[in-house]
Design goal:
By secondary structure, the chain is of the alpha/beta class. The chain has two domains: 137 residues, 3-Layer(aba) Sandwich (Rossmann fold); 60 residues. It is 51% helix and 9% strand. Helix 7 crosses helix 8 and helix 7 crosses helix 9.
Length: 219
């Protein structure tokens, strides 16, 4: 049975919140009240006063003519919220960058509402689910030699590349050092399977830069 996990919508279009609330009710997903926020900053401002629990967040990273709000997405994911990116943007590059930033799922707004419902339910269970366009973007990335990493693997990789040791990653992500090592072993194996081995930290950093997981000036 699906656990009751609070659901939040972050989107600057009120009609999106209305639609999500209706679709969730029609699907009988147990979420309770579904608060709406217009931005990540507004959401975080309120949550600083009342941290609450882990939430599933339907988030639109689009910001008009500006680049998508990858920083806001990363902030939400670092707080261990389960983010479903929900945007009209269907660019494969942006879809992959949102998944790399930590989004558990990505749904394009032009896709059927059922795909969003499936993504929300999967996020409640800590699983990944993608709409057709996101799945196609991931397949295209794999064909170009880009390994498919889970959201947690991406978080571990990025934090490890930004810190000095695995213990720091363990403390920051609240996981055991052995879990950090396991994730890094899996990441290296995934790269080896597509003939892009990365035996050292420097080599893995180079792969992460090539694949857009991290910027060369981030370290």
């Amino acid at each position: 049975m699906t656990r009751n996990v609070p659901l939040v919508v972050i989107d600057d279009h009120p009609i999106v919140h209305t639609g999500v609330v209706r679709w969730v009710a029609e699907a009988s997903i147990p979420t309770g009240a579904v608060p709406a926020y217009r931005s990540v900053a507004e959401f975080l401002g309120e949550r600083q006063r009342d941290p609450g629990t882990t939430e599933v967040i339907v988030f639109d990273p689009e910001r008009g003519e500006e680049r998508p709000d990858y920083v806001g997405l990363q902030q939400l994911c670092k707080l261990e919220h389960r983010v479903v990116a929900y945007s009209r943007i269907s660019s494969a590059e942006i879809i992959l960058k949102c998944l790399d930033a930590g989004a558990a799922n990505y749904i394009v707004k032009s896709e059927a509402p059922q795909h969003l419902i499936d993504a929300i339910m999967a996020a409640q269970l800590g699983m990944e689910a993608r709409g057709p366009l996101a799945a196609a973007a991931v397949r295209a990335g794999q064909q170009r030699g880009r390994p498919e990493l889970t959201a947690q693997e991406r978080r571990v990789l990025i934090e490890w590349l930004l810190t000095d040791n695995k213990e720091s990653v363990s403390k920051k992500l609240h996981i055991a050092p052995s879990t950090v090592r396991t994730h890094l072993q899996r990441i290296r194996r995934r790269y080896s399977e597509i003939h892009r081995s990365a035996p050292s930290k420097a080599a893995l950093f180079a792969r992460a830069v090539q694949d857009g997981l991290i910027g060369i000036h981030d370290v």
